[in-house]
Amino acid sequence: MINWNNIIEKLKNGKEITVDPKIWNSDNLEYKKIYDAWAACNFNLSSIKWINFYPEIDFDKSICEDLCNSLEIKMHRAWISRLDPGYFAPWHWDVDDNIEEYKSYGDIRRFSIFIGQPHPAHFFVTDNKVFSNTPQGTVYEWIDFDSWHAGANAGLHSKYMLHLIGY
Asked: Which residue segment(s) compose the domain that 159 sits in?
């Protein structure tokens, strides 16, 4: 059994994701589509922020390898996301510059694991499902790897999830 609390405790700095266009690949127009949708809906753009942590950089890659073995997939990519209180990731799909390469290996599968302790007012929505106060260690396999989704933290503690994309 994985000690998620221990993994969360040891996370390094991570990469802050905001609407700042300098951090996005401006050659990929999918990012602009998402940003334009948020701006058109009049989202408070300063409240959009999350932190991504990557295997080998911010945490031990063996965690992802063990999960992939148990889920019977081979990993394309993985990351842990942290959503701090008062921030959200509005309705979007994940743009991936390497998606065509991933498709060449076969059907893409995506999993999200709720690795933080459950707390009130932590929300995740995808595939017409709403997750709230979800037990630590819950694994969800997405219906479509590129589904629209959103996350919000109106609680008092940071919200953590691990995401795996594989085949």
From this structure: 4-17+50-166
pLDDT in the model for residue 127: 87
User: Where on the phi/psi map is residue 139: left (φ > 0), alpha (ψ -120 to 50), or beta?
Assistant: beta
Report how many domains make up the chain.
1
55: helix, coil or strand?
A: strand
Q: Is residue 65 included in any domain, yes or no?
A: yes
pTM over 0.85: yes
User: What gap in Å lies between CA 131 and CA 102, rounded to an integer?
Assistant: 27
Whether 130 maps to a domain, the answer reads: yes
